[in-house]
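Figure S4 source data
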Amino acid sequence: MRLRIVLSAALVMLGATGPVLASSCTEQIATIERRLDSVGAEQVTGKEPPGGPTTSNSAKALDKPPAGKPSDPSTKASAAGVAEARDLIKKARAQDEAGNTKACEDTMTQAKEKAGALP
């Protein structure tokens, strides 16, 4: 009986400290942050991101940006757009932490639009 109580208590403790699952918005935030800390963003802003540029380490990543311009001129990246996107990511992170997934996803859509097509 005593062993059963100890085991039950241990299971409750493990359940309380188990891993927290990431939301889809958390994953979007991480993806866009990597884009905003990329070499392409550095080319647009003229500034190296804090901590240095990062890469996605993806086997599908291009060695250099594609030639040409985006077909939609409104998707052209700008330094101001990258800065606005960073501010929106802070807002989205707060919404995500508060459990407001819909607002977070809406804010991330805005952040993506502001970031534009980074090289």
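Figure S5 source data
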Amino acid sequence: MASAETKNFSSPDETREFKGKGRAEFLTVNGRPVSKGTFEPGWKWSVNLRPIAQTDSCQVEHLGYVISGRMRVVMDDGTQFEVGPDDLFALPPGHDAEVVGDETCVLVDFGQVGQYATPPAS
């Protein structure tokens, strides 16, 4: 049986800065990474994370909950949708995303975020 474990994002295990306009803070709980992303107005995956990920679109699977702000997601097939406060979302690999409006978007991601905002392995 796994043991109980608590952590707090005020003391993250790791912080990964985007190429401007935000960061992702990570906690590992019972061996599973969880991130809290802070995406500032003007942030766009293809501008601020593509240089880090070195892929044409985001290849991370996300399972997230939006705390504040709004984000627009554009799938590789052209499908678009927005998420905002109190929205829970599941997002497969193959997308771009951008902050909508002038409010910072903050969300918690329980998806496959272990390698999010890191360069590809050599």
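The chain has one domain: 14-109. Residues 14-109 form a domain with the Jelly Rolls fold (CATH 2.60.120.10).
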